[in-house]
Amino acid sequence: MSPITVVEGRRLPLTNLDKVLYPETGTTKGEVVHYCTTTAEPLLAHLHDRPLSFLRYPDGPDGQRFFTKNVPPGTPSWVKTCEVPHSTSGPTRQALLQDLPSLVWAANLVVELHTPQWTCRTPGTADRLVLDLDPGDPATVVECCVAAQWLHERLAADGLEVFAKTSGSKGLHLVVPIEPTPSERTTAYARTLAVEAARALPDLVVHKMAKALRPGKVFIDFSQNAAAKTTAVAYTLRARATPTVSAPVTWDEIADCDDPEQLSFLFGEIGPRIERYGDLHAPLLDPDRARPLP
Q1: 3-class SS of residue 288
Q2: Domain range for residue 149?
Q3: C-alpha distances in Å from residue 36, one per residue of 31, 41, 135, 205
Q4: What keywords would UniProt list here (predicted)?
Q5: pTM of the model
Q6: End-to-end CA distance of the chain
Q7: Residue 269, φ and ψ in degrees, nearest 5
């Protein structure tokens, strides 16, 4: 039988806790679940009211991986859900992680956590704008940092605050709190920024997705602002070779980055970072920090 744990009054079976998910570091499923519980406060804050999409990797990053938006079979009845409109296949019902038992349940499934730029209260109306900076080999996060600083200044010129985090993979995510705005308009504005950046930094940045254009450059993906798209949430573990995390970072760290390893954080480093900095993305949760798009 699977061990049963009680989390805030909810009984949860936890399975295969000794299973090694990340062979390079020997990280077990139990350690993954523990990370989610110890990082629960900021993680749940950024997940609150946002319908969840799962990238599941139950046998580790080298095993089968599959992406799902629908509520998984066997989901406990006490996990909150919401109906989400879908433009082509009709509405879907997706999970919401609103409390610690729900987060532990999700962690036991072994998942990356992805959310849209809107909440379940206002589907398709964004309260965040996201720019995903993705480096094409041999470019790295170092080149992303140069592009990020240009975008930071450009967004500031429009009166917008910008917060940065690692993607947990190779690049960076820039996140901007905005007053509620239709996703179509948010996407159009984000595209304008990407085009401007490519014109200003032609040797560094591309805004088109064509793979032939991307080697050695930073692709600014503005499409994640579309209503149907999602982005890895702050503090989620990623299905990479090692247990890296999408970690909020400071602008000083970005300015000082000259080695990709400086902005690659394993799950064991996140607790000390939170102790040092607090939640660097906490301002995104304050509606008073939101500004209108120009």
Answers
A1: helix
A2: 125-289
A3: 9, 9, 28, 35
A4: Ligase
A5: 0.95
A6: 57
A7: -90, -10
| Cβ-contact 169, 240 below 8 angstroms | yes
Q: Is 254 strand, coil or helix?
A: helix
Picking from 57, 82, 115, the residue at the C-terminal end of a domain is 115
Q: What angle do CA 53, 56, 59 make, to 5 degrees?
A: 175
Are the C-beta atoms of residues 244 and 238 closer than 8 Å to each other?
yes
| Structure-block tokens of residue 94 | 């997706």
Within this chain, do residues 93 and 159 fall inside the same structural domain, yes or no?
no
pLDDT tens-digit map of 109-152? 999 999 999 999 999 999 999 999 999 999 999 999 999 999 99
Structure tokens given for 208: 């088109």
Please tell me whether residues 153 and 240 are part of one structural domain.
Answer: yes
Q: Where are the beta strands (DSSP E) in 156-201?
A: 163-166, 172-182
CATH of the domain at 214: 3.30.70.3300
In this predicted model, what pLDDT tens digit does every residue of 67-113 receive, in sequence order?
Answer: 999 999 999 999 999 998 865 667 889 999 999 999 999 999 999 99
Q: Are 125 and 181 in contact (CB under 8 A)?
A: yes
- DSSP annotation of 151 reads H
